[in-house]
Amino acid sequence: MRTFAYTLTHPLGLHARPCFALSGEADDWNCETVVSCKGQRANARERLELMGLNLSCGDELTVSFEGPDEDAAHDAFFELLRALDLDRDE
User: Fold this and answer.
1) In this structure, what CATH number is given to the domain that contains residue 66?
2) Predicted local distance difference test score (pLDDT) of residue 41
3) Exposure b/e, 36-75, CB count within 10 A at least 16 = b
4) Which residues contact 57 (CB under 8 A, 6 or more apart)?
5) Is 15 a catalytic residue?
6) Which of 9, 15, 19, 61 could form a disulfide linkage to 37, CB 3.0–4.6 angstroms apart?
7) What's the total number of domains in the chain?
8) Exactly one of 4, 12, 13, 15 is catalytic; which is it?
9) Which ranges constitute the DSSP H helices of the chain?
10) Beta carbons of 76 and 29 less than 8 angstroms apart
11) 42-58, pLDDT tens digit by residue?
């Protein structure tokens, strides 16, 4: 199992567009990917579950990966999350 913690800095938090991009990334890997924050968990493949976490700027989330592709998924998901969080052109 691999995990990482990440604190959101985007003023809009994790809204619809990044949730859709992250769920698409999770679909590309053969492992379970779970996003957790404030005592709630979401399957990263489920866009509505991710949006249901209602993640805001300053929230710290934990992302965990378990399965054959966990190492590659960990690295790719982190880089995508970081890129989406730093994108201020919305």
Assistant:
1) 3.30.1340.10
2) 97
3) bbeeeebebbebebbbebebeeeeebebbbeeeebeebbe
4) 8, 9, 10, 11, 12, 13
5) yes
6) 61
7) 1
8) 15
9) 16-27, 47-52, 70-86
10) yes
11) 999 999 999 999 999 99
- Predicted pLDDT of residue 73: 96
For residues 32 and 70, what is the distance between their CA atoms, to the nearest angstrom? 8
| Structural domain boundaries, residue 49 | 2-86
Q: What is the DSSP letter of 32?
A: E
Q: Which residue has the tokens 């809204």?
A: 15
Predicted local confidence at residue 90, as pLDDT: 54
User: Which residues of the chain fall short of a pLDDT of 50?
Assistant: none
Q: Is the pTM of this model over 0.90?
A: yes
Residue 86: per-residue pLDDT: 82
Residues recorded for the chain:
90
Residue 66 Rama label (left phi>0; alpha psi -120 to 50; beta): beta
